[in-house]
Amino acid sequence: MEAKYNFILADLLWSYSAKEIPPNLLQDFDHNEFIDGFTEEMIRKLATLKVDFISHNTFSTKRYAKLKKLLNKCLDARSLKLQCVKNQDFEGAALHREKERELLSQIENEGFGLSFTQQNEYALYHVDVDTKNRNVRFTVYSNGSECETFLLDIAKRVAECTGKKMGDSSSQLPTT
Fold this sequence. Notes:
By secondary structure, the chain is of the alpha+beta class. The chain has helices at 7-15, 33-44, 56-59, 65-86, 90-109, 146-162, and strands at 48-53, 113-116, 122-130, 135-142.
């Protein structure tokens, strides 16, 4: 898998500071400029935005075994890093931060990215961009609903403005 577009979701999640997406998102360019820009670009190019959610059961299959192991190790390293910071053990925090970076790199080598929201939910994701057919597909595994709500709302807004069907959102990764 190719991971060169994985920055899209991370940038969207990091720039998203409101608890809910405002109803006038597309008209309010002072608020979350990057999200507006991304959404407007999708609309301008008449692109289709699809979101596929990997269910917990699907993520537990052999197909995702290596990725699941990397995710768990990364979450453990992140937790230990934060605990060390809380305890003012900055050398320990630095060691765990380095381990977390190494694991994030391994996750990227598997074609996925990992991002955290402000509410400390995570999203493990892969972004596919089909420029010929103007399709963007987010494949996401998350531990919470914030990412799901956020992505579905953006996909809905793009579909409403382009007149294209939003695409099926499912809990299974499509077979290719």
